[in-house]
Write a structure and sequence with these properties.
Number of helices: 7
InterPro entries: TAT_signal
Radius of gyration: 18 Å
Oligomer: single chain
Structural class: mainly alpha
Biased composition (Low complexity): 117-157
Strand content: under 5%
Number of domains: 1
Organism: Pseudofrankia asymbiotica
Order of helices and strands: HHHHHHH
Protein name: DUF2202 domain-containing protein
Helix content: 55-70%
Shape: elongated
Region (Disordered): 106-157
Distance between the termini: 18 Å
């Protein structure tokens, strides 16, 4: 029955496919024609755009912190959450490419001024963005003290992240409505991505 379990709930196999399929689709939303940089010597963005970009960058940084904490606390979710977290690093890079002033107007660790690379915020000791090649499998003996991969704890973490993503989507929408035509498409793209992330997290949580 195509990955659908009891009472129409998605099966564990379907959810495990999210990092490779659904998560990749969510990432495409943010990169379709929305990351072109301003040419050298271009005028600074209008104040309303800079304010909107700063707000969006702050939202993305907060999500990175949320994902780092969840990955450290729930290693079994690292494959799924690591992929979503990577999108938020890409979102910050896209914002800085579009509004280079963010490289100096935002706190340290947001972005470098010269390219799409984005430094992650300080992570809890041992937290990972995604399982590295050769690393111990999630939930193995290398789990951090205090880690909790019980079904209830994982479901709670996924629900909290889904709520954070929906809040971020609402914030990006508000920023989009105040921005000019130069920045608004990127903010709309970020809003769509966060909404998709929230749906994926809710789906994963419902699968148990």
């Amino acid at each position: 029955m195509g990955g659908v379990g009891v009472r129409g709930a998605p099966s564990r196999r379907a959810v495990l496919a999210l990092p490779a399929a659904g998560v990749a689709a969510a990432g495409l939303v943010t990169t379709a024609g929305c990351t072109e940089s301003r040419p050298a010597g271009a005028p600074a963005p209008p104040p309303v755009d800079l304010a909107a970009a700063r707000a969006a960058a702050r939202t993305e940084r907060d999500l990175l912190v949320d994902y780092d904490a969840a990955i450290a606390r729930h290693p079994a979710l690292a494959a799924l959450l690591g992929g979503l977290r990577a999108h938020h690093a890409q979102h910050l890079a896209a914002l800085t490419t579009q509004v280079p002033a963010l490289a100096t107007a935002t706190p340290d660790g947001v972005a470098s001024g010269g390219g799409p690379s984005v430094s992650a915020p300080a992570t809890p000791s041992g937290a990972a963005t995604a399982p590295a090649a050769g690393a111990s499998p999630p939930g193995s003996a290398g789990a951090q003290p205090g880690a909790d991969d019980s079904p209830a704890a994982r479901a709670s973490a996924l629900a909290e992240l889904a709520t954070a993503e929906r809040t971020a989507a609402d914030e990006h929408r508000a920023s989009c409505l105040t921005a000019t035509g130069g920045l608004a498409p990127l903010l709309a793209s970020l809003r769509a991505a966060e909404s998709c992330h929230a749906d994926l997290l809710s789906l994963a949580g419902s699968a148990g």
